[in-house]
Structures are given as structure tokens and as C-alpha cells.
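Need C-alpha cells for this chain, all 437 residues.
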Amino acid sequence: MFEKLRNAFSVAAKSFGEKELKEKDIEEVLFELEVALLESDVATEVIDSLKDDLKKQLIGSTVNKDKIAEVVKQELRKSISSMFDGAGAVDILSNIQKKKETGDPYIISFMGINGTGKTTTIAKVANFLRENKYSVVIAAADTYRAGAIEQISEHGKRLNVKVIAQNYGSDPAAVARDAVLYAKSHKIDCILIDTAGRMQTSKNLMDQISKINKVVNPDLKLFVGDSLAGNDTVSQAREFHNYTKFDGAILTKSDADARGGAAISIVKVTSSPILYLGVGQEYKDLKSFDKDVFLETLFGPEQVAEEIRKKSEPKVELKPEIKPEIKPEIKPEIKPEIKPEIKPEIKPEISEEDPFAGISTKDIEKYSDIFDAPPPENDNQARKLASDIRKWISEGRPKTKDDSKPEPKVELKTEEVEEVQDGKPIKKRSLFGWMKK
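Here are the C-alpha cells for all 437 residues:
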């Protein structure tokens, strides 16, 4: 139900979340929202109201950008909720009980054009009242449409409900009056009046509905509209309300309504509440309209959404905490594999009581002489000296610190020298010397 309208609100919220809170960008998103809502059968009055509310909340707002989408969704939810609250509510069962205590029947008049499911809806309401232990009589005041009297009479037989009817062409107001007299004489709790499916553009037929209401003075006037008719249903509701000021509406075929705009629009245009939704063909397929359920269908459960957001925050914080726990588990496994021989050799030597174990006395004395190493005064110094000696041994026991550096390469050079005796050369010989490059 209401899938298209739900998607329109969701896309609008996400679009705001991707833009800065500048008036130009807000206008662009509001235009996209307006188009989406029009396609979802939302009346222009509703769209203008939603746009104005969003502008007031968003322009110049200091809300964090990451939370803009959530703020937009909540503002839309709040605006629509206030529309339903402003329309009020009607508790039919409570009102019937109060009227019953006075000894008079409670009268409900139904209006709407042909094809909306009005007659079937009346039968569903009759079944609902009987299930709640109230007696019912139906007035077949639709004396114009062929088959209308037979249709409502068949429903009466199935439900075991009395139907008051006259011939076709009879005065609808007279049929309604007969039903009231029958109810009073038989102590019937509630009267349901089925009026003709008059087109809202016909003034004469609309005047006849007004006449019925004046003659019997119903306690509750209900408009029955087809959810699938969209904006046409809103237009019908507006016209009927101008003539009769009905007290509430019932939307049929809501189970097949993917748009959902009619409910919001009728409430805004007529300031009258939606009382019931028809959700099937069976008599039991009549559900009381619940504002909270409707809003949850469009926006999701408000409290649950906040809980999910709160729960997602610690999840993000847990990730860096899990990673360091995994790393130390991997390191001990890798280290022994990469350097399995180094650790066991070094650690035991350092942890033993004699840190010089394995080092000859000759190497200790030679190292001390070359590097003027003083005798260690404590265990830490002894371990340090032993480590330095081992390093010195591994480097080939250099005689000085500078000797630890790589020795320079040398080359052999031959020089020719003449030997002189008594001032005369007697022979030549070769001398070998080391020359640094």
C-alpha cells in the first residue's frame, strides 16, 4: 500500500541530504518533491503546505549535513501528522451507545458516486456494527440506479439485516424517513442510508442529497471514495463537502492503492478525518484508519528508526576495537615462523643468571682492553656489556671502533728504482707498496 507516495518522500529526503542548505538548492528539491507528490495524487493544497513547512525548517538551518535526510523525513512526518490531528476523529461505536441511551436510533448517511463501492461499504459497516452487538436497519434510498435496490437487499439477506425500500423513482428522502420510523418502532440502534451515486457536477442530484439530510437529520454523514481514483476522488470529496459538510470519509480499494495521496488530500481539503479503509471484498475487510500506522507505512516507525541509528553508532566504534585484538593474535604466529631461531637463542642468554655464558674470558678481556669498557656494576650493565661483546664477535672482533667499518680497497703498485753505487746505476729492482684508491 502507498508505495509510490512512500518512495516520493524517501527520494526527497535523500536529495536534501546530498545538498547544502541553500535556498536555491532547496527550491530545486522542493520542485522534484512537488512533481512526485502530484504523481501520487496529492492535492496542490497539501503540496504547498508541505513545501512551506520544509522551507521554514531548512533555510538557514544549522543541522549537520549527515542528519539532513532524517530531519526532512521527520518534518514531513510532523506536517502530515498535524493535518490528521487537525481533522479530529469520530468514535462511531461510542456515539451509537450514547444515542441508544436516549432511546433514539443513530443515523448514518452515506454519499459518493457510482462505482466507488459505496453499497458494499454500507454492508461492511452493517456487519461491523452487528459484530459489536448493535442492531441495524438499511434504507435503500438509491432509487435511480438500476439494480441498486436488489444489490443492497441481497446484502441484507446475507447479513440478516432489515432493508427498507420502495419502488424505483421514489423520493429518496421518503425512503430514509420510512427507515427512521421503522427503527424507532422496533428499537433499532442504528440506521444506514444508501443514497444514489450522484455525479458531483450535477447540482439537482446534489440538492437531493441535501434534502435527505434535512429530512432525517443524520448524526453522521460519510463520504465514500475510491482510493484508486486519485485526484478525482479528492475533487469529488471537495464538491460533496461543499454541499453537505460530511463528517468523515471511507476510502475503498486501499489494499490496491500504490499512491496513497488521496487520504492526505481529503483530510486537508475537507478538514474531515478518514474513518475506515476498505481492504478487500469480504464483509470483514473493513479496517479503522490509524494515523500512526499510515505514517509508519510512509516513513517507517519513528522510534524504531532512532533505535537503529543509535545501535549503528557503537557498531562503527567496535570495528577499530576488534582490529587491534586480531593483530596481536596474528603477530605471535608470524614472528616465530619468520625468526624462529633468533628469539630462543637470545632470550635464554639474557634471562640466565650469568649473561656472559658462552663468551670466552679471552674475548671479554680483549674487548675491555680495546674499548676501555669498565666492569659492570649491576645486572643491567652486565647484560648490556655481554650484548655488545657478542655483537663485536659477530662483526669479526675489530681492533678499534673505526675498524668495524669496511676496509678500503687497495691496489698493488710497482715502482722502478735504480740502485746507485759510487754515483753510477748498477741495476733495477721492483718495490711493492700499498696505495689507497
